């Protein structure tokens, strides 16, 4: 039977909103959400919003700015967004030892964003909903959980070379 590690709130190290400083290509980010929204703005050549995202201190502001990106095309976003989330989380976890340890101890489980409101990145169910215990009854795709589970496996492979 498949085992799960559920997460949802900002306090969880697996949340995109969890505070974690990291750097990619000389640019510093305060959480994975900021990186994701910055990459969204850059993908659609919106340098103005990208700069505002870098200045925004909270994930809530960063997400709102991400929604304001000009020239947005859903198909193009969906082709690229998981890679951005992977890259941001790779940096987040490899540059923060305590967070890395939190990720590695989930080995043997599938990470699941237990967000009752997010059916794309999460499963559309809260942790206390019995339907969350079976993948077949999820109401969402769990993209974030998939990316983090893949990242954890890749990090184990890297560490054991």
From TrEMBL:
Entries under Pfam families matching the protein: NADAR (PF08719)
InterPro entries per record: NADAR, YbiA-like_sf
GO MF annotations in UniProt: hydrolase activity
Catalytic activity: 2,5-diamino-6-hydroxy-4-(5-phosphoribosylamino)-pyrimidine + H2O = 2,5,6-triamino-4-hydroxypyrimidine + D-ribose 5-phosphate; 5-amino-6-(5-phospho-D-ribosylamino)uracil + H2O = 5,6-diaminouracil + D-ribose 5-phosphate
Domain NADAR: 6-155
Keyword annotations: Hydrolase
Top-level taxon of the source organism: Bacteria
Family annotation (Gene3D superfamilies): YbiA-like
SUPFAM superfamilies given in the database record: YbiA-like
Record-linked NCBIfam families: ribofla_fusion (TIGR02464)
Protein name in the entry: GTP cyclohydrolase
Organism, scientific name: Paenibacillus oryzisoli
